[in-house]
Specification:
Helices cover 75% and strands 0% of the residues. The protein is an all-alpha fold.
């Protein structure tokens, strides 16, 4: 009877020929391509060589919205990749549903270079700010759903996996999604305030880490 309780539910069995290692390899490749494409949004300024020393500094400075969008998007994609990697360190099996959720997540990640390009071109507009926020909110909620699905009743993870870790990750991405989501109506009132609101990710993630750290101690 004890062995029956320890066995993963039948719905969590590996129900396709694709192994977890192949999912990881494919996902890493998609993340790598998406994060590399971000830099293509920054065009090299075109000035005459004779006037380069005079005009080039101003032309480079004019690109600061593109540099800012590149840095922010690079860091967030890196954040997603790091947690995706951490999640799959604990995944031991998968279902077709989990596989399709992962593909949907990767579709959102591949879409990021376009969102970053749009945001860098129209940084001061509410439409581009809301679009950029939405493009991060969707994969955040999706990754939270993946964490919950994988760790609920230890569906796709080892029996030794600590449930508190799964809840921490789930709430971390729900927090990320809600911050980007809440910034969207703020953008209608004040675009700058909406963008600064994204900085709430730092203290809220810190507090979540402290809270779940104490719970898991």
């Amino acid at each position: 009877m004890e062995n029956d309780r320890a066995a993963p539910p039948e719905s969590a069995a590996d129900d396709s020929s694709i192994g977890v290692d192949r999912i990881i390899a494919f996902s890493d490749a998609v993340f790598a391509v998406a994060i590399t494409l971000l830099v293509l949004n920054i065009d090299v300024p075109q000035v005459s060589r004779q006037l380069a020393d005079v005009k080039l500094p101003a032309e480079i400075w004019a690109l600061w919205p593109k540099f800012a969008a590149f840095i922010v998007s690079f860091l967030i994609i890196g954040f997603f990749w790091a947690f995706h990697h951490m999640m799959f360190k604990n995944i031991r099996r998968h279902t077709n549903l989990f596989l399709w959720m992962n593909l949907l997540l990767l579709m959102c990640i591949v879409f990021m270079p376009f969102s970053a390009a749009l945001f860098s071109e129209y940084t001061t507009t509410e439409v581009a700010t809301m679009f950029y926020a939405a493009s991060w909110a969707v994969p955040s909620f999706l990754l939270a759903l993946m964490w919950w699905y994988a760790t609920d009743n230890k569906r796709l993870v080892d029996e030794q996996y600590k449930a508190i870790s799964g809840r921490h990750a789930t709430f971390a991405f729900l927090n990320t999604g809600f911050i980007f989501l809440l910034s969207m109506p703020i953008a209608i009132i004040n675009v700058g305030a909406a963008q600064y609101f994204w900085l709430m990710l730092i203290p809220t993630h810190f507090l979540l880490g402290r809270y779940f750290g104490k719970r898991g101690a």
